[in-house]
Each structure stands twice: as structure tokens, then as C-alpha cells.
Amino acid sequence: MSTEQSTPPLTQPTFSKVSSLKPMSTGHNLILKVVSTKVVIEKNKDKKEMISEAVVGDETGTIILTVKNEQNDVVQPGNTIILRNGIIKVFNGFMRLYVNIWGNIKLSPTTGDFVVNTSNDLSAVEYELKRT
Known about the structure:
Shape: globular
Distance between the termini: 61 Å
Oligomer: single chain
Strand order of the largest sheet: 3-2-1-4-5
Number of helices: 1
Largest sheet: 5 strands, antiparallel
Mean pLDDT: 89
Structural class: mainly beta
Helix content: under 10%
Number of strands: 5
């Protein structure tokens, strides 16, 4: 007698837009174009210990994405990337997009058919900690 366990079907990810991002939120799936990158910390070139900040965006706005180590190979100006399970943190009062160990960044198989809206920069808006 064989027992056959049925696995539930996988659900398709829902992609959101940059303009819908809010401080201290998690679980964001985004399709983004990389506008520019800047190396912030470079410790060891041989081991690729590097932290960069990239301006990324879609047709609704831009935000700064902080990337580490091998993520720098994918996040290059002009590339269209797929970011899964991104998190928003507030750094020095400004929003930043991160990918932790449960998320990933991959090169999109197709180029984005949108123009990045650089006039709506979510990382330029300063947030203040509200004490209750």
C-alpha cells in the first residue's frame, strides 16, 4: 500500500511597486532597474568583501538598495533585477532597501519595459522616530 502525499501547488509571487514601500516593512518582491551604484565599504578585494549602495527603481519611483559581496555582480547600472523578499529599514532617518539571508537578487531574463521615475526618490524623504 503506497501513501502518496500531495504537495500544495506553489503560488506565483506578487510584485509590488517602489511607491508602495513603507518604513520597517518586509516581504517585498520587486522588478527594478539599476540606475547607478557606489561602493561604500571595500575590505578585501580578493574575497569580494564589499558593500555598495545602488539607486534602483521602477516607473513609480526610486530607492537606495544596499548590497553585499556577490550581490554586487548582479546589481550593475543598466541591469534589470528581480528582488525577492526585500526588507525596508530606516538608516539615519532615510529608507533603505535590503535583502537578508531569506531573500535574493537575480538578473531578470528580460529587460524592463519601463522608464525609471527618478523624480520620486523615496530615500530622500526623512523619517522621524515617533515616541509614544
